[in-house]
Design a protein that fits this description.
With 307 residues, this protein is an alpha/beta fold. The chain has 11 helices and 10 strands. Helix 1 crosses helix 4. It starts with a strand and ends with a helix.
Length: 307
């Protein structure tokens, strides 16, 4: 039997989907799992995936994999599921449930070769330990370089960088069209090189984007800052998950459809007086130093105020 699993979304969603792949193969060990996505390199070397194809290059797919074949099609998007919209479980759990696949707490997986792991050692010749950060995500060439529901405010991020710049080589994962930070080196490499950098880094500060999923896949605990999205849906317990401060202004929900806030950023929804109110930079610094973590009960309180 063939199982054709299609993923619509970015790199982070593809990394999360590797956990679904593992759950699928656990339940259907003899199946040939074919994954269609925009980022097939995420699935390279993955023993659960027989074939990873790019969604933009599917010539002759129907006669080769569907017509006259015993195939199960896993094509639906979990973001459109009732359980996901009502926050009834983690994305991976909802995804498995949607396909009638038993979920046993599977986590994402990324498989790197020994040669790939050594690429991080040649990326930057530095005697200092590495602090790896990702402060923004989203689509290429966005009109607004900063999206408040997802990104770490640049001024806050700069305070954190300044606190570590003397002790650490700070590497900033970002595209050229995203906001830069002083006292950092920019990493614009491909996904698998970034994954190798995550393995080499000593400390990591991320937002809810592909790096935090990849860190979980590689078993690298990180500090992750959350604004509109919630770690209960997208995050992992191994990370120190810091929830944004409660809103200080009533938001405008005119454009809210299937979620409270638009992750792509509607400035009219902005529920703060300024970006400085979203996170406490000192708290992030303390979490990175390992001096403190945000108590779960405090996290729960902040989540209630946000949602």
């Amino acid at each position: 039997m063939k199982i054709i699993f299609q993923i619509n979304g970015g790199i982070g969603k593809c990394v999360a989907a590797t956990a679904v792949c593992k759950a699928i193969k656990t339940q259907h060990p003899q199946a040939e799992l074919i994954v269609i996505s925009g980022y097939p390199d995420v699935f390279e070397r993955n023993p659960n995936v027989s074939m990873a194809l790019h969604g933009g290059n599917l010539n002759y797919f129907f006669p080769q994999h569907i017509e006259g074949k015993d195939a199960a099609l896993f094509l639906h998007d979990p973001y459109h599921e009732t359980d996901f919209i009502y926050q009834r479980g983690h994305l991976i759990e909802v995804w498995c449930r949607m396909f009638d696949i038993k979920y046993n707490g599977e986590l994402p997986e990324v498989f790197l070769t020994g040669k790939e792991k050594t690429t991080a050692n040649t990326f930057l010749n530095t005697p200092k330990p590495i602090l790896l950060i990702q402060t923004s995500g989203g689509l290429t060439d966005q009109a607004d370089k900063y999206s408040w529901p997802r990104d770490l405010p640049n001024a806050t991020a700069q305070k954190v960088v300044n606190a570590f710049a003397q002790e650490y080589t700070v590497i900033h994962i970002r595209r050229q069209d995203q906001l830069a930070l002083q006292n950092t080196f920019t990493a614009t490499a491909n996904f698998r090189v970034i994954a190798a950098l995550i393995l080499r880094s000593e400390k990591r500060l991320f937002i809810d984007s592909f790096a935090q999923h990849t860190a979980a896949a590689l078993g690298k605990p990180s500090v992750v800052c959350w604004v509109a999205n919630l770690p209960s849906q997208f995050g992992y317990d191994m990370h120190t998950n810091l929830i944004a401060n409660p809103p200080t202004l009533p938001p405008e929900f005119r454009h809210s459809v299937f979620s409270k806030y638009n992750i792509s950023d509607k400035v009219t929804e902005f529920p703060y007086n300024s970006e400085d109110e979203i996170f406490d930079a000192d708290r992030i610094i303390e979490a990175l130093r390992g001096n403190t973590t945000q108590p779960k009960e405090e996290n729960k309180k902040k989540v209630k105020e946000l949602v």
